Amino acid sequence: MPQTNEKLVEKLLEEGRIKTEEVKNSFLRTDRSKFVPEDKQKYSYIDRPIPIAEGQTISAPHMVAMMTEELDLEKDSKIMEIGTGSGYQAAILAEIATKGEIHTIETVETLYTQSKEKLKDYNNVEVYKGDGSRGIPEAAPFNRIISTCGSPGIPEPWKEQLEEKGIIVAPVGGQRHQTLKKYKKINGEVKEQKVSIPCAFVPMKGEHGF
Fold it and tell me: Which of 45, 62, 121, 124 lies at a CB distance of 3.0 to 4.6 Å from 17, suitable for a disulfide?
């Protein structure tokens, strides 16, 4: 069982979850313990989801790594994240898109307040409170969209707020079990790519959620 962030990263590398130098470095620079509740610190470096507040979770590191890799990020990527949660995924993104922008939205007041505080030192991260299923129209368009909550499909607002050739990575399916899927906007249409990984995320709330 990994006892340090460095050991956790080694494990993810060995398993092939982390594939690129950029993602490896972002994980090394982002200590997961900072985003884990105080009473669950001993689980910080275990590769599994951890409850945080209001029935939400901080995702398992291997899933964060896989989703981040599928985004194919650039240093100047402009990203929308649906479901800030603990702030861990946003921090990982911020360490890669150092010249870009991360716009992350959370519907749960407690988590919004906590994550805003934890992410305050990242000058490329903006945290919003609201219905993530509607996207963040005031900050659009984006060339990358990632969702950390399960949705019944890809909401129309996300498709509209995605730039041409932009990428969406999201868990799609039912309230309890989904499939992680990747999409790309080609000639104005958001088309599914060849990525299909079983997963289980908390369900997305809101107008286009469950």
Answer: 62
Question: Residue 210 domain-assigned?
Answer: no
Chain CA centroid to CA 24, Å: 16
For residue 111, tell me if it sits in a domain: yes
Annotated catalytic residue within 26, 44, 59, 77: 59
Query: Can you give the CATH number for the domain in which 137 is found?
Result: 3.40.50.150
Q: What are the angstrom distances between the C-alpha of 186 and each of 120, 159, 166? A: 35, 11, 8
Number of structural domains, the chain? 1
pLDDT tens track, the chain, 210 positions: 678 999 999 999 999 999 999 999 999 999 999 999 999 999 999 999 999 988 899 999 999 999 999 999 999 999 999 999 999 999 999 999 999 999 999 999 999 999 999 999 999 999 999 999 999 999 999 999 999 999 999 999 999 999 999 999 999 999 989 999 999 999 999 999 988 999 999 999 999 998
